[in-house]
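Recall from the previous lesson that a structure prediction takes nothing but the amino acid sequence as input. Here we apply that procedure to Cryptochrome/photolyase family protein from Vreelandella zhaodongensis. The sequence below is the only information supplied.
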Amino acid sequence: MSKPLLLVLGDQLSLSLATLRDAPTDAVIALCEVAEEARYVPHHIHKIGLFMAAMRHFAQALRDKGYNVHYSRIDDADNTQSLITEAERIAIQYGCNEVRVARPGEWRLWNAMQQRQEATLPWRMVEDDRFFTSPDDFANWAKGRKQLRLEYFYREQRKRTGLLMEGDTPAGGKWNFDHDNREPIKATLSFPSLPTHRQDALTQEALTDAKHHFSEHMGSLDNFNLPVTRRQALADLNHFLDHGLADFGRYQDAISDTEPFLYHSRLSAALNIGLLTPHEVCEAAEQHYLAGHAPINAVEGFIRQILGWREYVRGLYWTQMPAYKRENRLGFERELPAFYWNGNTDMRCLQRAIQMTIDNSYAHHIQRLMVTGNFALLCGVKPEALCDWYLAVYADACEWVELPNTLGMVLHADGGLMGSKPYCASGKYIDKMSDHCQHCRYSPKQVTGPKACPFNSLYWHFLETNAEQLNRNPRMKLIYGSLSRMKDEKRDAMRLQAEQFLDSLPTSQGYGQALHTQGYLSKDTQ
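The prediction returns the following tokens.
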């Protein structure tokens, strides 16, 4: 007779998890804090605190429901500090004869678990069905298609779920209202303040342990305010619906010099660890539209991010791995700029995006794509370095969602599998969408010279350097036409400006090294 150990991972904190449904009465449920998962990239202290506090609360919720729960804390004397060996140790301790687990969020773990399926203590994998689609669903949709474009996938998702549908037609008469969602920042805007989550004894203890064991990681827990229980996550959802959703659409691409959250939901971390389901979030947003509380452009744009983009990148990740992670079609080789770890740059947009990341383990999607991402693209940062950074610094970063967004969307390293063109831009884009440039020593209107915005010369340098691969792209035809019409003297000056900047750009292979070289770490904290 089977007595399973049901392993619940830190991003699977849902009572609806497949492994928990119909669990045998003698099953043991295990949750494990292990140093290996906290350190394989140097995760932000907010992210570590979120996982530890949320896991401990979820374990308590399971005990309250009568489950037999074993919880491995980070400082337990017998903790092996590795997820696979810790689960097997617990299984043997309780006399379990197999380990059951839902599909993890990383191919790295999935592959390690697959390797154990024929072991003396076998692992049994089940599908994580908390999403709208499974990897098999996506593979079936992708079969025979020359291009895996989000828009077509998203339309089928809308039809299949009925979300924002009026019979066979989309609500509002269009599938996509993105054209209405590109308004820049305005000085007259006021933004909702976030709810403050009370930290009970369990949360405080978890944060204390995170600080004790991972104090050298980015960030400070003094301003930690992420939801660590389902009740807190629902409070964030309701707050967004009531105070952010109506204006989210118009200003979703805007960037503020002072406000990190604007009208954004900040729900992705709670969604990605399982405190909220994508179904309930999309349905709640749809109800706000139907009740007349939010316009179609805002609700459609929000639902597209979850029903469309979130499902699309997950499907792409699981159907393309592990080869996808090795893609580097543009041949980038530069290490990460050192200031990505500390914000020590005089480029205002980058300094603010990175400082907000250090402060909150959060930056919204345009800061990630068009500021830190765009700069890394223009500088030719190698995918491995940038992907590890995004995975480390953001509380919502699980590899299944982070890797396609970074490698494919930001760096165009997959040869256009995800995006039909690179998301590259000069300083003009940032000047249009933000209020950064008025605070910056550089001018977005100058291309060369000591006050010229580095984005400008880097933009043209990137296009010139990668012309062989990009100039045949029909969506790049106009911009390469502009480049070809430039006088040689102008092109030479821009090239020299960009190369001098790149030659003087300090890079770093890791967080500790960057802080040490910048004087941020003393010897006794390393």
